[in-house]
Design a protein that fits this description.
Elements (H helix, E strand, L loop, with lengths): L30 H26 L1 H8 L3 H29 L1 H18 L6 H16 L1 H12 L5 H30 L3 H4 L1 H15 L15 H21 L8 H23 L13 H32 L3 H12 L2 H12 L6 H19 L12 H23 L7 H41 L9 H34 L14
Length: about 525
């Protein structure tokens, strides 16, 4: 795979493209570029933590700012909609206005909104700030992938993609411990302000480290206005519909019907437009590549699994034993901190020519399935210590399930297709996380109702004198435990199903260093 994605090649035009200026000389990878790459990585991690921390600390934010539960749900929904939408369109903007300018603007905007959010005078202003911050944060992951593909030499390209994988493994697991720390020791404002120190460091690193490409304003003559007017509302409507679906009882709500139905229709029209546009945001023809299609399909399942293995123990410990986030933190850190070692080791393994990354992926999914099958044996007596063994299995399982997908999705692409692959991968990543959260919420609600009904029927004829308060508490613990066990089994089945696809869809590829 070529290590160079030069500005002149990054238009990805399927028709006559506007004349481009001579490309800037490709920068040689060294300390300066490495610093720039680390700056973008830091910005992505800070942005991801910002999203997760404000979800976890939402109760403290609501209490401090006097926001109702229903109103606060829109803080999450609108942030997610803006973030996923930005992932779709940011690669085009980077190719037009330059990677460095877009990255610096996104970091600065994310930091500024984080600083201002605690001072919002009312809810509408806070919602607007969170939307702007979501768009800035969502624009950063595509920049990280583009930097890794464009500047890293072939023999270390996979390590850069491993850094990108931190946003899917390290960041989500670290959100709970940091949220507990900020809210318990420094105040609820730090749920927003925690982006500031990392963003300042990232700004300095990116400013010094990334080269400045020339503006490509001639691309504006072929700007896909129809695609923007169709795609932006389509993605936003679908994300908001999925995030708010469980709270509003899904299709019993006219609003959810409008958001999902209208968003789905606009998305179909968007893809029809993208198929024939000379300078599209998404290049649908790339889906003919079996490895890319398989990577995108499997990515959705992997993110569902990764979100579930974070959500299940956290929710169980909170509901059954009353654990606060700070008490749950050690379970999350068991997976999060070792990622800093596990990710480069897995990248080194996949970088060997003799290693078929498809089977690394299969082993990673198998370990995730084993962890979930062991978790399905849980009982109401389980406490934090019982989850450490399950989490330990995931230390290498998570990067083994993510890094091979990045290798499959990006290896063998033409330089001009790099921005399109980034748009596809990041948008699917963002949308999959939203879908996974919606499915998990719906599954938890329905399994809770099922187990509550069954246990209530069995306990309906209890004799007089039974302590009903104690019985209700034990019944609640049993319902939560049975629901958690069901979810573990479902997640294990999904992981095993993805293994079945591996011999069928993807083809053998070699790491970039062996090209």
């Amino acid at each position: 795979m070529s290590a160079v994605l030069s500005p002149a090649l990054s238009t990805g035009s399927t028709g006559a493209a506007p004349a481009a200026p001579p490309p800037a000389q490709q920068a040689i990878f060294g300390l300066r570029l490495a610093t720039g790459l680390c700056g973008v990585l830091l910005a992505v991690l800070v942005s991801g933590l910002n999203e997760n921390i404000t979800k976890i600390a939402l109760a403290d934010i609501r209490g401090a700012m006097g926001i109702t539960r229903d109103d606060a749900s829109w803080l999450v929904a609108l942030y997610a909609a803006a973030s996923v939408s930005a992932m779709a369109f940011a690669p085009w903007c980077a190719a037009t206005f330059s990677l460095r300018r877009v990255t610096l603007a996104a970091i600065a905007t994310c930091m500024l909104m984080g600083f201002l959010c605690p001072f919002a005078p009312n809810l509408p202003v806070l919602l607007a700030m969170r939307m702007v911050q979501g768009a800035a944060g969502g624009a950063l992951p595509p920049m990280l992938m583009t930097v890794a593909l464009r500047f890293l030499p072939p023999n270390i390209k996979l390590y850069g993609l491993g850094g990108y994988a931190l946003s899917a493994t390290f960041g989500p697991s670290l959100g709970t411990p940091l949220a507990a720390f900020w809210t318990d020791y420094l105040g609820w404002q730090w749920a927003f302000w925690q982006v500031i120190p990392g963003s300042i460091a990232a700004l300095l690193m990116v400013s010094w480290g990334l080269p400045q490409d020339p503006l490509r304003l001639e691309r504006l003559r072929q700007f896909d206005w129809r695609g923007l007017l169709l795609g932006l509302p389509a993605i936003s409507m679908l994300v908001v519909g999925l995030v708010q679906g469980e709270r509003l009882d899904w299709f019993a709500s006219p609003l959810i019907c409008l958001l999902t139905g209208g968003g789905g229709l606009l998305l179909v029209l968007f893809f029809i437009n993208e198929w024939s546009h000379p300078l599209p945001f998404f290049k649908l023809q790339l889906l003919a590549r079996r490895n890319l299609s398989h990577a995108l399909l499997t990515l959705g399942g992997v993110l569902f699994v990764l979100l579930a293995v974070i959500m299940i123990p956290s929710a169980y410990l909170a509901q059954v034993h009353g654990y606060r986030p700070l008490q749950t933190a050690p379970v999350m850190l068991t997976v999060a901190l070792p990622q800093l070692l596990a990710l480069p080791l897995v990248a080194a393994l996949c970088n060997l020519r003799a290693v078929d990354c498809r089977w690394v992926l299969a082993i990673g999914l198998g370990l995730l399935a084993m962890s979930c099958l062991l978790g399905a044996r849980m009982s109401p007596d389980w406490i934090r210590d019982h989850f450490y063994a399950l989490q330990a299995l995931q230390i290498f399982a998570q990067p083994m399930a993510v890094i091979p997908l990045l290798l499959l999705a990006t290896t063998g692409l033409a330089p001009a297709d790099g921005p399109f692959a980034s748009a596809w991968f990041n948008t699917i990543k963002g949308m999959s996380a939203i879908v996974a959260g919606a499915l998990l919420d719906a599954s938890i609600t329905r399994r809770n109702h099922f187990h509550s009904t069954v246990l209530s029927e069995r306990l309906g004829n209890l004799p007089d004198g039974v302590d009903m308060t104690g019985m209700a508490q034990r019944m609640h613990a049993q319902v939560v435990t049975l629901t958690s066990s069901d979810l573990y089994l479902t997640v294990a089945a999904i992981a095993l199903a993805m293994i079945v696809l591996i011999p069928i869809l993807p083809t053998r590829i070699y790491p970039p260093r062996a090209a």
